[in-house]
Amino acid sequence: MVKVKKWDRKKKKAARANYRAEIKSQKYGMVTNVLYVMKDIYRFDKVMFFGCFIFAFSFYFSDLLAVYTDKYVVELAAAGFGSLRLVMICLLLFVGNHVIGYIGNAVGNYQDYIGFAKCSNHIMEKIMKKNMTTDYENNEKSENNDSLNKAREGMFIAGYNTPLNVRGTIRHTINFFTYSAILSVLDIRLVPIIAVPAALSYLIERHKMQWVWNMADNWQVYDRQLEYINSLSNDFSNAKDIRIFGMQTWFEKIFARSFKQRLEWFRQQDAWEFRHNVLRSFIGFIGDFAAYAYVIYLVVNGSIGAGDFVLYFNSIMRLSNAVKDWCNNISGYQWISNNVNYVRAYLEMEDKTNRGEGASVPSGKCEVEFRNVSYTYFGAESPTIKNLSFTLHKGEKLAFVGLNGVGKTTIVKLMCGLYDPTDGEIFLNGVNAKEYNREEYFRLFSTVFQDVSELPVSIAENITGQSDSEIDRERMFDCMKKADIYDKIMSLPEKESTPLCRGVYENSTDLSGGEKQKTALAKALYKDAPVLLLDEPTAALDPIAEQKMYMNYMEFSKEKSCVFISHRLASTRFCDRILLIEDGGIAEYGSHVQLMESGGKYAELFNIQSSYYNDDKKEVGEVE
Prior knowledge:
- This protein is an alpha/beta fold and about 625 residues long.
- About 65% of the residues lie in helices and about 10% in strands.
- It is built from 19 helices and 10 strands.
- Strand 7 (about 530-535), helix 17 (about 545-555) and strand 8 (about 560-565) form a beta-alpha-beta unit.
- The longest helix has about 55 residues, at about 250-300.
């Protein structure tokens, strides 16, 4: 059972202090954020921008005409339909209301079905672009991931609620002054009688929501748990384990446990909101009832006619609603502003790398030099790479070997510009890598990382990164053959046009681990960059496929500077130099023959691996 936390004075004071501190810490204010979103909407969708004003005024005039239509219809009925003037007025009001209402509905439909989606998607595209182009290191920091999650949550609110609130504020503001003026003609005291209780109802609603906002931290942990459990249970990659190990019962138990704890907070929120809703309805009813009673009294006494009674009666309802809705809009702006700040904070996240004009990138062979390079991961206490110095010469084939976790992959990420050194410098053809524009620098490297990713598009698009009309198919087929994946792809029903990811397309295929690595290699070869980085490119291949890849390696690595990482030391013998990485630095270096002759750590590791295979063969021979 969750302990109920009372909304006492101490907690209220602390909540207000936290709220003020949060608002004060935000970079942009409420007005600035609303203008930021509306200016952005004006730039990419002027129809949506002006639609907010057209919608507001259309429904304002439509409501106003409806109020007067009711008034004159009643007067016409009372006059026995003998007044041509009243007939014409009613017809004009009816037609005008219909035309203006049609305009408002047309604009509203555009905004509801197209405009709001375009606004949210426009912000989502900006967040996606920032996520894909920001410094790679930014994506690995937990605080930036939290910022990204907040930006994604704020995206819809910024794109949907901002124009919704703006058009509502315009409409309700005009309504307030219009119906206040109409009622003031009858009795100016009616305005505060209606407006004050409506404003009090808003304050009660705000007090209700303050509890919800300040208590949200207590149940967000359960919401995250439920979302995580749900996503895991629906992830197809977990389907085999769930069935084989009977994990469905476990999923059901932890889901039920988290939901039970979340349900306790639902019950508390329901009880809290029920009390406030009753009080809010009662206070709002007092003001409206007093105004209605006064108007009824006047019509009974003959002070106003039936038509005026209908006019004032409708005006009371619309003024009350205008005050309540206006207050809700004004309150909503702070909520919108908070979320816009989340979006802007992520979009304005600082990048350390050069994104402007840089040094001219080389067009031919490349040489990469590490000078006393060290790198410490975010949050780590000690560096993974320590004072590392070496040179990848033009056209050289360089291998990195060593145990897991010594920093081999980190070196590759430093070399291709995904990471910036914590200390030291990296030079490309004698120029500090920081001097190059980072996007242009990336074009110099073709990589195959351990974790191969594939997109839910065709195999051809995965390999080339281009649309179907832009693909050089002859070149693509050549790369597929070099990567030894051509025959497999040509055996598929749609060949290279076969889409990947069965969870997205019905006619798609899922490649095996080894086939994914071959496809990734074909992708790297198609890019044809002067530096080729292969990080465990044969880890998922069988021995025969691995041997074939090694035989092809000498051909597709010609004229390129290459780095090769592998745990299988026998696979590095074709490299010009081998660097044994240990404890973040170079423990040994040389050719395979030199390292074996020196009898050091490399020779020890090589002999251990080779003895395993020799023992295995011996055992097979004994069985025979």
